[in-house]
Amino acid sequence: MKLLVTTGGLVPADQWLDAFRAALPDCQVDPWTPGLPADYEMLLAWDPPSRLFSEQPRLRYVFNLGAGVEKLLELDLPEHVQILRLQDAGMAVQMAEYVCHAAIRFFREFDHYDRQQQQRLWHRRSLQQRTAFPVGIMGLGVLGSRVVEALRPFEFPLNGWSRSRRDLAGVRCFAGAGELGDFLAATRILVCLLPLTPRTRDIVNADHLRQLRPGGCLINIARGGLVVERDLRAALDSGQLAAAVLDVMQEEPLPADHWLWQHPAVTLTPHVAGMTMQDDTVDQVVAAVRAIRQGDTPPGIVDRARGY
Ligand code: NAP
Ligand code: GLV
Hints:
CATH architecture of the largest domain: 3-Layer(aba) Sandwich
Strand content: 15-25%
Number of domains: 2
Bound molecules: NADP nicotinamide-adenine-dinucleotide phosphate, glyoxylic acid
Mean pLDDT: 97
CATH topology of the largest domain: Rossmann fold
Largest sheet: 7 strands, parallel
Number of helices: 10
């Protein structure tokens, strides 16, 4: 079998090629360059150019170098091409630490204490009731359910929302569009871990932000396209939302003149909440290649109709 690799700058290409060659000694592993022979069956890719697919009509399996597949789906690949995505691959624990850090920082008002320190102020604020800070996780899949587990010890009330109904101990689980309003009304710290699909694009909009408990915090570590940024700005400026912690934005890299850089209630990170880890990824792709060779169904197949 022949595997083509294009990492789109997400990870160091040479190092990853070496790791895949070592793990798949009976497979030819090559970096993609234009004009290669048109006989590759498998592709490992992040953000591949559409030209690659017209040059490689024998591709049958495309391994996405991340969890979110919206860019691959936009390419509208032929139906016989199976898209597989990474599941966890070392990202779930990173998502868990990111969300716990952001939620606790917000609840314990550490930003406020940072500002006090700059002014050499010794002033103790009274601690608020954590029952007044319910955390709602939108998306209870591989990453969202790991985040739920990590939040548990901190005893915030927990809500979860997904497309199909989930049953997670100690979590008020809501499902489908019909229960989104109840989920939002029960939530003060909103964590986005949804895939970006036609149904979820712009889901964090003025109407939905208004339904959250007042003085809350948005933590978006999924995709920028989930959030209507002008509506977020209005919610922050009005105080309806007290803070936003964003790892992903509509446009990445975020343009230097974007309002998000300077807003006092916004904390930004440059799409690093869940970084693709080499060893976990190699193990997962190798397991999928073995399954394919044995005629089994590999893990992580994307359902194109669902969009994730
Ligand atoms: P996943 O396992 O596929 O889980 C997706 C969850 O979203 C599922 O619970 C699913 O519901 C729910 N969902 C999908 N469409 C929905 C809808 N229309 N209404 C309600 N719920 C819906 O995905 P994952 O591995 O957890 O990853 C989630 C996303 O995180 C990825 O798609 C990617 O965009 C993002 N991500 C970001 C980073 C980063 O560094 N910032 C890193 C990795 C991933 P069901 O349970 O009913 O299927
Ligand atoms: C990163 O954003 C991913 O989808 O894995």
